[in-house]
């Protein structure tokens, strides 16, 4: 009984002093203003709307008669002051966001940056700082200049390394006094799931995917080294798309299949955190006929550009199996995994596994011994707004509460050094995978539908008030 009481009290304790609570969005999913103030078109701007069972189509150019939801998104570009005020009301300590590369360099080739784009983010950062909200900024979040995809085949070309380095230096020079925490590429391991999302390549072979990822590793490393050499207060991390797997059964073949699956995904943080390609990476290349074209200086670039911390998203776990018969394709996802009979699912068929978050935190810290951030965690659901303009999303509160409990156990019982927790998202935003609005994640409802109709007015959900109490108590009160 005493042991049970001790565990309950640990769960009820506060998080460490200075812990950063907040929320997260991405520029292409929330900003809008896709062609305003000199911004160029990005790869996200040619994506149409899809559905739970239908992927988005990336058109060859912008067609006048098609709806592109990212063009206006939820209009953060014009409403950022309103949205940041709502973040402050919730008590945010941090806000994870991204910069649109094409606001700074519209095609990626310009020698001089677009001053209007730079000023926009100055304004956003100043507004955050006014309320004491720490920006956590992703340099490249599922978008890049469309010109570079059309003319260079995206990250397949090594030329993008220097173009990204120019962009990274520009924003580090401009914002180093306002932004302490940076991430280079969002969910960089998603390159093996969707080449157009991560790499700006419409269709990529395995060889092309890993060569393009090598170019991203170099670009990230150069950004990290530049920050270290010039701005000692700045910390630069990598962002891992949180894929964590269990063996489907205790059959040794399933255990080995799980090991191989995790090796495939952790290839990315292995390289960026350690600064070199390990034996498993090289064995993977050999076994799959991959030959990475490297310059003589590449090994040193990777070593000099090791990241300072790991940020990751967490929505689900998967199961690995050696038996092809039990493999299934998750709806709305390109991740193969066996069914886990112990877990429930979201409306978009992703497993709900709060304990898996504690498991994930332990895996990442034990492997890399670097500070961690959870920069995406949330429930995509269909929210209904009633006649009183209220949204009773108790299911989202339940989801977040259970995940935060496991996060606290990881920190307070397992000793994991965790810097931040940001829900996905803040306001409702355009879903990355499907372009839908009805797949809502935010604590703030945005009046917008999948066809682009609505006032864009903001309404506080029940989860808004609940999360406000969580932050006020530093995680002590979760009811």
Radius of gyration: 21 Å
What portion of the residues fall into strands of 2 or more residues? 5-15%
Distance between the termini: 23 Å
Q: Which strands sit side by side, in order, in the main sheet?
A: 1-2-3-4-5-7-13-14
Mean pLDDT: 94
What is the CATH class? Alpha Beta
Structural class: alpha/beta
Pfam families: Glyco_hydro_1 (PF00232)
Keywords: Glycosidase, Hydrolase
Protein name: Beta-glucosidase
GO molecular function, one term: beta-glucosidase activity
General description of the model:
The chain is built from 15 helices and 16 strands. It is an alpha/beta fold. The protein has one domain: Alpha-Beta Barrel (TIM Barrel). Helix 7 packs parallel to helix 9 and helix 13 (354-368) packs parallel to helix 14 (394-412). The chain starts with a helix and ends in a 7-residue tail after the last helix. It comes from Enterococcus florum.
Concise description?
With 479 residues, this protein is of the alpha/beta class. It is built from 15 helices and 16 strands. The longest helix is centred in the middle third of the chain and has 25 residues, at 206-230.
Highlighted features:
TIM Barrel; two-stranded parallel sheet; single chain; eight-stranded parallel β-barrel; 479 residues; alpha/beta
Topology:
Layout: H1 2-12, E1 20-24, H2 27-30, H3 76-90, E2 94-98, H4 101-104, H5 115-130, E3 134-140, H6 146-152, H7 159-175, E4 181-185, H8 195-199, H9 206-230, E5 235-241, E6 245-247, H10 252-274, H11 279-287, H12 298-304, E7 309-313, E8 318-320, E9 327-329, E10 336-338, E11 344-345, E12 351-352, H13 354-368, E13 372-376, H14 394-412, E14 418-424, E15 444-446, E16 458-460, H15 462-472
Parallel strand pairs: 1-2, 1-14, 2-3, 3-4, 4-5, 5-7, 6-8, 7-13, 13-14
Antiparallel strand pairs: 9-10, 11-12, 15-16
Helix pairs in contact: 3-5, 7-9, 9-12, 13-14
